[in-house]
Every structure is written in C-alpha cells, then in structure tokens.
Amino acid sequence: MPYPALLVDITIFVLSLWVGFEVISKVPATLHTPLMSAANSIHGIVLAGAMLIAVTANNAIGYVIAFLAAALAAANVVGGYAVTGRMLKMFRKRPAVATAGEPAAVSPPANAAKPGSSAVAANGSGSKGRSA
Amino acid sequence: MSTFDWVIQLIYVLAASCFVLGLHLMNTPATARRGNQVSTAGMTAAIAATFAIVIHGNQITATGWVVMLAGALVGGAAGLYSARKVQMTAMPQLVSMFNAVGGGAAALVGLHDYIRAGTSVSATTSVTTLLDVIIGGVTFSGSLIAAGKLQGVITSAPVAFPGARLVNSVLALIAVGFGAYLIASPSAALLTVVIVASLIFGVSMVMPIGGADMPVVISLLNAFTGTAVAMAGFVIGNWAMIIAGALVGASGGILTKLMADAMNRSIRNIIVGGFGTGDAVAAVAGPGGSVHSIAADDAAIQLAYAAKVIIVPGYGLAAAQAQHEVATLAEILESRGVEVSYAIHPVAGRMPGHMNVLLAEANVPYPQLKEMDEINPEFARADVALVIGANDVTNPAARRPGTAISGMPILNVDQAKSIIVIKRSMGHGYAGIDNELYVNPKTSMYFADAKKALAEMASAVKTLVG
Question: If I label B308, which of A65, A127, B96, B409 is the partner at 20 to 30 A Cα–Cα?
Fold first, then answer.
C-alpha cells in the first residue's frame, strides 16, 4: 500500500535535516560565510518551484506571481553560486605572488636586525602558511 | 508512473546528492571550491530536469513561457551583477538579500498554488501553504530590513516603539487565528491578510535588533528561508525542494546556535531585545585602574622585534575596512621573520566567518587564520597580541561569574607577554561593560581609527627598522 504523500514528504524532510546537521557541523568557522552563501545558492532550488507554477498560471494574477517568483528565485540561484565561487577563490594556502607594491617594497628580509631571530625566521618563512 | 517521471525523480535525487556532497566538501578550504562546483552541477541538473517537466507537460501557455523566461532572465542578471560587484565588506547585506528573495519566491509559490486550487484545497495543503507563506513572508521583509541595517540605509541601532510587543502579539495572533480558520474554509483573500501580517511581523521583528546582533539574525533568517523553501516543496510535491530546504534549514540552525553561544546570548533574548548595541560609542567612563597609551613608533618597535605576533581582528576592523592595512603590516613583519597569525573569534565581523573572508580578500593565506580553540593555547607563547577593534571577546571578566559576559568564550589575549590595543575610544562593546584587558599593566592602548593606526604602524616599522 502506498504511503500518503505527506508522510513521505515529512520523512524526506526530517532525514534531510539530520544529514544537514551532520554534514554542516564539520564545516570550520573559517568557511562559515561561504557556507552560508552556499546554503543560499542551494535554496535557489525554489527556481524549480517558480518554473512549475508558471505552467499552471492562466490569468493576470497568476502571471504576475509567476514572473515575480521566477525573478526572485533566479536572482537567488545565479547570484548565490556566483558570489560563493568568488569568495572561495580568495581562500589561498600561500600568499599570491603577484601582490603589487607593498610586499615587494619591504623585501629582502631584514633578519639581521634582530640577533637570534634567524631560527625563527627560517621557521617562519619556510614552513608557515603551509603547515597548518 | 511514466518513464519520464522516473528519470526526472532520479535526476532530482542526483541533484540532492550533489548538494550534500558540495556541503561536505566545504569541510576544508582546500576542497571548498570543488564543493561549490559540485553543488552548481547538481543545481544545473535539477533546473534542466524541471525545464523538461515544463516542456513535457505541454500545458504552459505562451504568456506563461514569456513571464517565466523574462522573470528568470531579469532576476538572473540582477543576481549575477550584484554577485560580481559586491564588496567583501558588504557580503552580509548580499547574503541577507538572497535570503529575502529566496523566502519571497517560496511564499509566492505557495500563494499561487493556493489561489489556483480555489476552495478544493485539502487541509494538509492548507497547513503547509500557511507555513510556507508565513515563514517566507517573515523572511522576505525581515531580511530586507536586516540588509538595510547592514547597509546603513536603516539605522543599525535597535528601533523600539512603545507597544511593539503588543503589535507583534497581535500580528502573530492574526497569522495563527486566520490560519486556523483557513484550514477549515479556504479563502485566497484571507490568505493575503495572513501574508500581509507576516510581512509586517518580519519588519517589527528585526527593527528592534541592534547591529552587533546581526550575525545571529542573518543566520536565523537563513534557517527560515530554507524552511520556507522546504514548505513550498511540500505544497507542490517537489522532493528536491524539500531536501534542499531542509539542508539550508539545518545549516542556518547550526550557525544561529553557534553565533548565539559565541555572544553568550540566547536566541530568544536577541529576538525579544536585549542590552544595548555594539554600534553605540558609550561615554568615557573608563575602567578602574590606569590605562596607558602608546605611540606608533613604540608599537612598531615592539612588533618588529617580536618572534611571535598574534593579531586579533574584531568588529572595529571590519567597520573601518582596514583588512588590507592589517595584511600589509603583517607582511612587513613576516618579511622580518616574525611569526604572524590571526586569532578569529566566531563573531568577529558582521556575519558568521565574515572576518575570514575579509582577510582572505586581503591576501592573507588561510592557514594563518586560526579559530579560537586552536589559537588560545598559543597566546602564552606570543610576544605581542595586537587587538584591532575587538572588545568583549577579549575581556577576561568573562571567566568570572557575575558579569554580563560570564561564560562567553573569549580569546586568551591577556596571556600574551604584551598587548597592544587599537581602538577608537574607551567606549564599551555591546555588552556595555568595562574591559579589564585595557587596564592590564601589560596592555598599551593606541587610540585611533583602525585603518589609520595600522598604516601608521606599518610605516613606522619600515622607517625605524626596515
């Protein structure tokens, strides 16, 4: 006997919530802004709903609602993915080489300025930014 | 069920898997980009499948095609434009706007389905539709207000008016009361009343919340949006929407909890309205004990001759947009062999993780960005802790019971050998209490705007010891 649609929907909803809790609790705080932005893009799936209501729209009110829904949902999904990608592209393991101006102006390193700092310097400039 | 329906449902399952996998890949910065790509692929598949449904059904009118495509085109272009142009400091506003449009679209889907069904709508559909339009409506208007506050279009100070609680109660009563009535006898007109009440409720819910609480509010509205989309999925029987909405609801829920914990406040306390706002610059009223300030040259010497410096960026750095200046100073120090890392408190910035994005934009490599639990043991080994516009999250008073911030997780800045604090004034943080760190004998205060202070220190390091 097929289960009532609502029961199936609730089952899917609840299990998805648990999967969400499980997966998302492992995301580090460093990535919380991109995470929220990624979550934003995912709820852009509402575009599917907006498209489906356009199918049944057949009067002025229906068309206005369908238009607005499609516009809002499309802004959500396109903008969400684009901005998440843009943010994540900035997360680099090493500083980019082509940073104009400042860093170049201060090299070469003036390690000699501090007695006993060379060990720290070697450690600092060698492994830092790659180890963690 | 036809073969076509089978294929569509399987594509939806595939899309949902991509969403989960995409979120899973966000557990390290190294794989996060791939995660976003996987998620994008899933979304593309889901939208393509929906497109196939529209064509296959062959029911849509010509006007239906026009409004759907025109809407998607206009919205998509607007979304893409804002995503490309947005400043990283304005990211919280944009995320809030995406919450608004998502919630609004979800509410519209529910509304349309309800109007179309007329009086034949079933009780269960009535319930899910009501949840959809109420949550979606609150999210839409609430997120717009939140975005306005973050953008500075609306004052970020808490706006309370007499009887606000009464108005909220009445609005909630209207939504629930009419809602209950609607389940018994469906009426599109009454549903509209419920939607209007929800919209006003969203405004009156967010208006009294101060700027410093925005990380919690955005997270909460994010959870709402997800839930609204899931409810819209219930209404039109679309599993992909239910799964995606639930995932977002879970994500928003977790972030809300994390943010509220990191601010030592309950979610209820924030929504109902609590004590003060981080934006208010309080009157002088310095803490008991003497505060000593420091000149840029002295600060520069301390920093330049340190072996290990921990930078503690806070709300003040984000507000002054000084992320590039701090990165420049850090690079100069590193080129001298100083070990530099950043201690990021969960609520630094204006939304969860915002500070990390700002620093990543300023070209700071992510391994230097340390979370609270990771960096706290390292403060004892640091020669200098440079605190920039962070207040309550550095206050040792949190370790004692009986203060407004007792129990709040803090950064162990006071354990560093010396501490330099860049701050505009002795004003209070949002908790409204004195910061004991500032009267610590190891602490020197540098009173200036973060951007200016960091530029001065960087040039002092260069001229003195460069």
Answer: B409
| H or E element, residue B447 | strand B443-447
Chain B closest-CA separation from residue A69 CA (Å): 5
Distance from the Cα of B423 to chain A's closest Cα (Å) equals 24
Together in a domain, B36 and B131:
no
Do B360 and B431 have their domain in common?
A: yes
CB B365 within 8 A of CB A94: yes
Of B82, B113, B367, the CB nearest to A79: B82
Instruction: Find the CATH number of the domain harbouring B420.
Output: 3.40.50.1220
Instruction: Let me know if B261 is a catalytic residue.
Output: no
- How many domains would you assign to chain B? 3
Query: Is A83–B20 a contact, with Cβ atoms under 8 angstroms apart?
Result: no
Minimum CA–CA partner of B249 in chain A: A17
Q: Note whether A100 contacts B: Cβ–Cβ < 8 A.
A: no
Q: How many domains does chain A have?
A: 1
Q: Give the domain extent around B62.
A: 1-85
Across B270-292, b (16+ Cβ under 10 Å) vs e yields: bbeebebbbbbeeeeeebeeeee
- Among B244, B277, B310, the domain boundary falls at B277
Mean pLDDT by 10 residues, chain B (466 residues): 92 97 95 96 97 92 94 97 93 95 96 87 89 96 93 78 78 85 85 92 87 86 97 94 97 92 79 47 50 89 94 87 92 93 88 91 92 94 93 88 82 94 82 85 91 93 82
> Which residue among B60, B85, B110 closes a domain?
B85
Q: What are phi and psi of B23, to 5 degrees?
A: -65, -40
Question: Mind telling me how many Å the CA of B13 is from chain A's nearest CA?
Answer: 11
Q: Tokens in use for B142?
A: 């609430």
With 0-12 CB in 10 A as exposed, 13-18 as middle and 19+ as buried, what is B452?
A: middle
What is the pTM assigned to this prediction? 0.86
Is the confidence metric ipTM above 0.90 for this complex? no
In this structure, the answer to whether residues B128 and B267 fall within a common structural domain is yes
Residue B48 sits in the same domain as residue B150: no
